[in-house]
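INFO worker-7 received task bundle
INFO bundle size: 2
INFO processing item 0
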Amino acid sequence: MPVCCTTALGRMRTAAVLLVLFLGHIVAPLEVPLDPKVLEGLPQPPTITLESPKDYIVDPREHIVIRCEAKAKPPPSFSWTRNGTHFDIDKDPKVNMRPNSGTLVVDISGKDKAEAYEGVYQCTARNEHGTAVSNNIVIRQPRSPLWSKEDNPPIIVQEGASLVLKCRPPAGLPPPIVFWMDHNFLRLPLNRRVSQGLNGDLYFSNAVVSDSRTDYICYARFTHTQTIQQKQPITVRVVNMDAFNETWPVFLNETDFFGDGATEDRRPSFQVPSGPTSSKMVLRGEVLDMECIAEGLPTPDITWAKVSGELPTKRFTYHNFRKNLRITGVTEADAGQYRCTAKNTLGSIHHVITVTVKAAPYWIMAPQNLVLAPRERGQLICRASGNPKPTIGWFVNGVPIHNVPDDPGRVVEGDTIMFEDVMTGSSAVYQCNASNEYGYLLANAFVNVLSEPPRMLTPRDKVYQVIMNKPATLDCSSFGSPIPKITWFKDSHPTTLEGDPYVFYDNGTLVIPVAQAMNSGKYTCVALNMLGKSDNQVYLEVKEPTRILKQPEYQKVQRNRDVVFECKVKHDPSLNPTMIWLKDNGELPDDERFIVDSDSLTITEVTESDAGTYTCIMNTTLDQDSASANLMVVEQPDPPIDLELTDQKPRSVQLTWTPGNDHNSPIKSFLIQYEDSLHDRGNWHNMTEVPGTKITAHLKLSPFVHYTFRVLALNEVGYSHPSLPSQQYRTKAAVPDENPIGVQGIGTQPDNLVIYWKPLTGLQSNGPGLQYIVFWKQRGVDENWKSVKIANVSNFTVGGTPTFAPYDVKVRSVNEHGVGPEPSAVIGYSGEDLPMAAPDNVQVHVINSTLANVHWEPVFYQSVRGHLKGYKVYYSRQGSLHHHNPHHAEQQVITFNGNRTHGKLPGLHPFSRYTLNVRVFNGRGEGPACSNVEFETPEGVPGKPSFLNVVNLSLDSLTLEWGPPHDRNGRLTGYTLKYQPVNNSNDLGPLEELTVAANETRVTLLNLKYSTRYKFYFNAKTLKGSGPTITEEASTVIDEGHPEPPPHPHPLSPTSQSDRHPLHKAHPIVPAFENASFALREDGVLVSWEYLGPENKVYVEYIVENSNEEWKKEKVNNSQSHTLKRLKEGLAYKVRVVAKDHSDQMVHSSEELFVTVPAMTSRQVDIATQGWFIGLMCAIALLILVLLIVCFIKRNKGGKYPVKEKEDAHADPEIQPMKDEDCTFGEYSDNDDHKPLKGSRTPSNGTVKRDDSDDSLVDYGDGGDGQFNEDGSFIGQYSGKKERDTAECIESSEAPSPVNAMNSFV
């Protein structure tokens, strides 16, 4: 082993220099940063960063380059030794050293050969702080010697014998690669029988005649010189003994070298290695190759096993047809005995290879660079292992440590050097050499004594972003000597961070294992040593994680349909997400059918190629989330193919087919169809269906049919197209197997019998010439069967029969091959005639006012003259027993099927007179009627009153008028009136009840509450009870100057007209609207508000400012804003929002908004300046003035036009009652009749129905004449009003409608 100057040094990393700092005790090494600003003023001993390999075989065609690179501060100088002596490169013009480098370049392009520069080289790099040395670099020139001349005689071998062809390649540097080829440069085929050994020899376990050839050539390829050397060809002849003994004795002097017989089979024996055992040594970390090649007949098989254990998993492989066992990365555990076994049918043989593992030195702990501060302590450890154990040698700056002056602060203890109280200027490079007989290791490690205050290396104000619940790592990289102590602070808190949830590392890094939102903020790290301190600030932002809320789902879709995969994602709003869709972990196809939206993927017109796995990936700069779903494309299956008919028999056949592609949807069943080209060409019929798991069907056939079959496959999508038809299969004719079905005998006339049947199909005929034999005979008469043979018909008529006589009939099929089976007879009847007799002793028993029971005696069976179908009861109402009701004479009939003797007559009118008769009927018709029977129905409850009207409403009274029921159903005994108050929330008050005489048609209720809505229930009564109820609602009017009177009973008053003229006032308006405002927009005026009231009928009303028009309104649908689009440009409007109750009375109103709609510039002629327009406007204004004067006069006289009747009879909005806010006299609205009232109850004698309250004088003629006053208006509709109130109404309201004015002018 060379001394220090020749000892190789270990390779160091190029990324950084590692320093060790001792702070009162031995400390961990510190990495010196590569930041140029830090390194600029930092002294550093040399470090070898790049060198050539220890064993360097050069390429003779190129320059020799011996590499040596190092770094240091100040930069190092380089020198070389060759074969242990100084190599003066200045004296050799062929050798140059690269600038700022120790790399040598040797020019061998001239006459100088590479062998002139062979030797052992070592590089030295030094500066004022120390000296580093490289490994020994052995330079050698590659060699590829020629093959020695030799004469290879032909080799003659007996068939079946073993054979070895020697290669013996020349020794080269490095060793050559050996292979066998022929003259055509084709590799010779190798197999279990013929294989190549590790030494290059070619082994034949047993020779065959085909092995004979003249061009067995061994080649050696030298990789470094790129040359191939060739051995002389070897000729091999493999002979068969019979042919050999016949031809070769002439040439061999009749000497039989091989015996008389062929080579016999034999047990295996090893060709290599020889003997039962062998040994092999291998170095740790290298490749162990073992081989066992055996001969024998038949060819043996080779197996391997480790005697004392298992083969190393994942590190062993078999080669050369299991004749080689290779173990890579050998360790000490691979030592032991390995057994190879060769075995054939005649026996086996074993060979044991003992493997010994040695080891060149390898590092346990290589020495690391140390950076120490003055007066600190540290150590260098050089720990290596090997077999045998390596020796450790220490050097200082390339000189053995025992040859340098003693240092009291340095102590060498075997593989460790201890340093204590180091001083400035004691920096040096130490070399450690670990060596044994198999190699050596050399490592450089410097000790650099530095004094440096802390420096921050992490960029200032760096922002760290991390996902919530993920680790957050905050760097605080610093450098200083001694090693600075790192402390952390958060935000403006003066206390240092410590404990959970923080984790601190020696290099200053702060880790939060599970970051939360509360961990966001500013962090300050401070580095401190005895020479100073430095700080830095970083920021942590904890973000919300990206999550897929709605994942794409598995889809099964038919071809040509559309499919949508949804992928809805939630992410931190400060991060920019990117959605990516993948198909089968690759990009989506470049196809316009794939439409990617923000949260979905749509595939239109899906094809089979679109099936696969689709993945949506949501990426942000910090994290991602993904989800996948499969798409399965299904469609109807392909039609079956290869239809084949087998096992053909006269009445059956076996059909076999091959299913088509099911297109991802399993086949449920197969439908087999047939075509009969003889009887029904072109039409396919279903024959049978078999499960989808079967591909055969046994088909039963009929005679005389030309069958062709086809098959359809069915899956969940539907049926496939039909398969191609099978070959035609014809069955032979036979006698019919069946007779016609549906045989029946029915007479169509009293003197005939028609025999019907269902004809056989061509498939049922079983042969040509199909005919039918029809048989018949009368039952109960001693006569023979009569018959007739007919064809191509399905009925036969027998004439001259007695009326309605029973017959036995049957039909038999026959063809050219014979008759069918014996048919069964059925009973038929000849034709029917009308019945001759009427029922007797008809009686009627009245059960109640609407139901009666009828009894009769049945007619004799003989007189029916047919099948008795039943009896019919004809009855008619002759009239009511009450003289007020009109006469009714419509006839009704009720049928009782079968042989009945009684029945019920429902739905009769009470208090009426009826007549009825009964008739028997058969299939031919009805018989004569019995004598008429009369009966009367008793009284019942009456119908509802014709109408119910409310008139003459005042502050505390009103009048009801009604008409008697149209259907009195008896003698009226009186009427019942019930009524109760109803508040604005539809809650009902106490119920009052009155009884009214039958001859009354109106009643007045007094002492009612003013401004109160009442609901009325009214019905009529007879002795049998009360009839259905009709309802009506009305409200008393408001008088704001009078307090609410105390409640007291409401006596019945005689009918009279009130002298008072109260006015029905509007409900008081409660402020419930807030923040009403408007905004001008292009499409109109947007009105907004806030409504706090309970009503849901809200309107926006508007009117032109300073005009007398009515307020116009627009309904609002469940909103708190509305756009008015009908306002005219250039006009000023008043706008308000109102809420109305169920009776359309305004209960709330907003403040009025004054809106001016800006005028738009127009080039059109101003119509207001046209003469014709001015004249038209003047005429309209004059007409309106006249109408207003008339209206004012009529109102002062107290006359009013009818409201409720007009509303019911006409839908014209112009004649609806005026609303409260218009100061007019509407008292109620029909619109709320259909709404249920809270707490309402049904009176005990009737049901409250909406329809009952809709009757009026216009609908019924006999309800009584209306009463009129002097000017022709209805009496009691409304009362008049004081002049003062009328004047106030006119001042506060707009001009009345001209139509209303005309209606009031009667």
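INFO item 0 finished
INFO processing item 1
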Amino acid sequence: MPENLVTSSTLVFFVNGKKVEDSDVDPEVTLLTYLRSKLRLCGTKLGCGEGGCGACTVMLSRYDRRRDQVIHYSVNACLAPVAAVHGLAVTTVEGIGSTQTRLHAVQERIARAHGSQCGFRTPGIVMSMYTLLRNHPRPSMDQLDQYFTGTLCRCTRYRPILEGFRGLTTDAPAGGGCGKKDCCKLKAKDSAETNGLLNGTTSKVQNGETEGQLGEVSDVTHVLYDAEDFQPYDPSQELIFPPELKVQTEWETQYVEFRGPRVTYHRPTTLAELLKLKTEHPQARIIVGNTEVGVEVKFKNQIYPVLINPTNIPELIEVTVTETGVKFGSSVTLSTIEDTLRHQVDTLPEYQTRVFSAILEMLRWFAGKQIRNAAAIGGNIMTSSPISDLNPLLMAAGAVLTVRSAEGGVREIEMDENFFTGYRRNVVRPEEVLEAVHVPYTHENEYFVGYKQARRRDDDIAIVNAGMRVAFRPDSIAVERLRLAFGGMAPTTVMALSTMKELEGRCWDSSLMEAGTSLLLQDLPLSASAPGGMVEYRRALTISLFFKFYLSVRGRLSEQFPSLVHPLTKAEQTATQVHRYIPPQGTQLFQSVPPGQHSLDPIGRPITHASAFKHATGEAVYVDDMPRFENELQAAPVLSTRAHAKILSIDEKEALGIEGVEGFFCWKDLPEERNKVGPIAADEELFASKKVVCVGQLIGLVVAKDRATAQRAARVVRIQYEDIKPCIITIQDAIKEQSWWTPLTITKGDVEAGFRSSEHVLEGEMHVGGQEHFYLETHAHLAVPKGEDGGMEVYSATQNAAGTQRHVAAVLGVPLNLVTCRVKRLGGAFGGKETRNIMLSVPISVAAAALKRPVRISLDRDEDMQMTGGRHPFLGRWKIGFTKEGVFKAIKIDLYSNGGCSLDLSGAVMGYALLNHDNVYRCENRHITGYPCKTNLPSNTAFRAFGSPQAIIVTEYMVSRVAEFLNMDPDEVRLKNMYVSGDVTHYKQTLERCTVRRCWDEVVSQADYHMRKEMVQQFNSSNKYTKRGIAALPLKFGLGFIELFLNQAGALVMVYTDGSVLLSHGGTEMGQGLHTKMIQVASRVLKIPVTRIYIDETSTDKVPNTTSTAASLSSDLYGMAVLNACTIIMQRLEPYIASNPKGEWDDWVTAAYFDRVSLSATGFYKTPGISGYNFETNEGRPFNYFCFGAAVTEVEVDCLTGDHSVLRTDIVMDVGDSLNPAVDIGQVEGAFMQGLGLYTLEELRYSPEGVLLTRGPGTYKIPGFQNIPREFNVSLLRGAPNPRAVFSSKATGEPPLLLATSVFYAIKQAVASARADQGFSPVFRLDSPATAERIRMACQDSLTQKIEPAVLNNEKPWSVTV
């Protein structure tokens, strides 16, 4: 601290209008931790800890005295130090509205528009939208899109969120699905055409529903909600900015210093103070948004003892327009830079602002709005990241930096090839401070373009980025000066010096382009083992982007020198176009309730999710939101860093020496026989003892006073290893070592005879990558000792309450009746919380029992991704025999899955893959074998659709290859082999009520498929660098647990004397609307409003021996159990209803109570007509019924970069008679988007040593708002009741995911067109996911032919395909 300076060490800020003063602030504490732990404002969530998901979004407000204006901006509370909000106002989701007072317009819309499912990330989205409205009371959809970058959702597919908020924008009337009852889009469709010609047969009374004719259609409707009922947004009613912050100036002008145990935080107010601090602490880190240092501290275990925040130093936050450009203080935020440059672009001649335009375009895709609001231009430069988005632009522009030190004074540095000296290093000296950045104007004869290619278009780090600037000699097309800067091609941002030198003086023509691409490859070599991988793709991108630059400049020159330069062709023009946001639109169609249905009967109505309003206000409680118990402790895992090794020693001494640490637990704390767990086979150690079998395996558990202390201590537990061979990482490794659990086989007919009788036989293989669940709520559990008899209460974010209870009891050595597992709700699960939770809920129970204190654990995102596994990667090898007409005669498939280090559910996943692999295709001769491979990866587990997505995409590849071989339309091949009712599957189950052809015909009609196929062909014939593809895919999906005993369910209904009803059942609510549907079922049977029925939690002391909430069966199973229990109640009330027919529910309940009649009932259901399935004998009926559907998807592909956009998707899904169309449509859309991620974006990368390299949203990309189809139409098949489930409904959770295969095959079709244009075979292998890398490298052309194969010479690759 500078001498003779008055400082403040008391933190002062406002939260939701209330003043907070704290004189004991630890600078390491983030705003999120402070809000949740100290202020108990738990609506703001921890989703990732790196500013990549938006769950922690809050609004900060400050008073700008120069402009006399309050500035509002959203930030990521998980990164913002609480010290940084000194003198600011913080608004959280709790501060804008509640269910107890009034809802804000934003909260109401996201809830009523069905934009919330699991609800965990809903507060973050609410706060992003709220901040937008505070800045722009009537925003555009484009502004809405900008504010939502950096905000992720895994459940709700984004469409209803945008539709719900559309009414608050200037685009309110646009698009479909507007929510109004007189929607013009609905009027434009004749319902008879929409539904097609339907035929059916009469059914009977079953499952509580009297069914009419199959195919008999009620009126179609699209009204999921009525937008006209929404309260209008009134800006005048917003929370008032604290007047004290306007009046008082001391909090802005005072020098602030906060000292913690390990870190001291300074906020100087003058440049002199800053320079003095840097002289005294040259290694101090200067932070503005903490967006880089925060990540380093959390994920790289860095510790920076001195932090300096320069945001109150005038020189560093100043923006100055000069004669030659704009000078930005180094602490100016990226959002301010956006605003400044946009004003410059709007007011100055176009030629003068070409650098500015390029920066604006880059910033659009730079992280999320919350990051841009906090991060500064200086941080971007000084962190010296080799993949910085701005540094290539600044280098190409020749930006000039002003640096200053106390001793050395001022110097100016041009950002050129000498600026970066190595990885994360530059020429600025430790004692110097970056003061300002000067960004120059361009001249009339100059052109400037920036490029970025990433895995996902919005909010993603670059794979390769570039800044390109060319200046021409006066009145000439000869190059005077060329600057080419690239990121992602070396340990630093680099300039292509030889290319720049060689091309100077040359004319801007095709020979320059040809020479330039060759020179760039020499300038930018890349080792085959380079960090980041994708070596050939990255090299291809450098020359592809240069080609785009060449075309862009040539197009401008052709306007200036038409006699010298040919204008761009239409195809070349499309290659230069930048992506523009187009607000999505769509229509959702479903069957309206029949005439005469009572207004209080909720079945078939789009009822709002039962917890939606609590989601939107932050009142919904998740495990980690629960109030702390007295004496509660927090736990952190100690994980293996080796994939296969002996444990030589475990040294926890240093960890136990840290103040606040209460204990360390490992295998020594349990008898050997109780250290084994597993859902099917107990083949997994709870704590690794003698050896580890994967990276991320649990070795120990540190328990401490708080989470930060536990995590810090866990990092210093020392493990010594000795590697064991072999280390099996990939499926290919497993095949080589024959490492697998018992293979499964299904045989139908005589396959070899089928091949002999076939006119043609083809073979092939395909790899399908795995997938991370990426539920927004990571694993969270709380174990509370009951205090007597060794009992334990476990509050768990699990899909499997009974399984958790069973494992806790077994490891603690107590009977099940002493352990209760409670589940309130889950912030998403998708299968990832079915079995893997036991690796956390059980260890903390061990610690809680030993210490006799409550123990809680909540994983960080990177820990969760390392520990818990995901969807199984698959390798499919197939052989098919067929006739010349395309009829299948014989099919043989071998499927290999990467199961990881323990069996878990890998056998069951493979079983479902074998059963569902046929999709919708007949074949009398089949032989399919599945090998669940045992490897040294974390155990893979259940994931939505359970092996079927991997198997079906392989089958569809096989089908498409048959069509290609016969030169037939693939649709024709599909229809020739498509199942119909009465056909028998390869597992001997007869198909009943098979509606797949109806779904197909309807979606083909609704999508105008045949006409659009022709339009796609016409587009492709006139476009060389941009291609389109369109694909129609059908779906069949079996519903039922293979293991017969799992097909059972229980429920408990309790009616209280005031007439209110408490309902319990064995299923868990994880966003799929299960509780909502159960309330609807109970409401219909009991004939009371849904408002009188409440579900509190799922608990093993209410409903015992429950089946896991999985396989899309919970509505079927628990719906029937609830129906059974409610029917019992109604039967007991019948005498009182009969004796008082004019009475009401309360009267009958009161009469029964006084007559001593039980008003509670248990319901039970076991699925009739199924018998499980035996793979050894190929006997049994595994499925209760089948779901059917079909989809048409059209995509557009950039052949030069591999980027793709989904232009339109149409889905028709058979969900029977929908219990709740809003929930079911939500499940259809959400599953489809998760499938889109699986097949196109989401790529898990492992090192050759088995280390997961993609451990958070920064490196692992799930779909974002920009990835939804631009037009997304969903129609629920009408007139298709299902007599085998409650009220004639069908499951919807999993089946629609498989319809995303239509995206994959549309992409493949587009790529095939590109290949054909370039003279390459349109028949090619494309593995899943179809990432930008795979797409670009499959679009072979003259540029990719220049790329030499990346050959490893005794080097290890950066990553391997597992």
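INFO item 1 finished
INFO post-check item 1: Residues 188-206, 208-218 have pLDDT under 50 and may be disordered.
INFO post-check item 1: The longest strand covers residues 1026-1039.
INFO worker-7 idle
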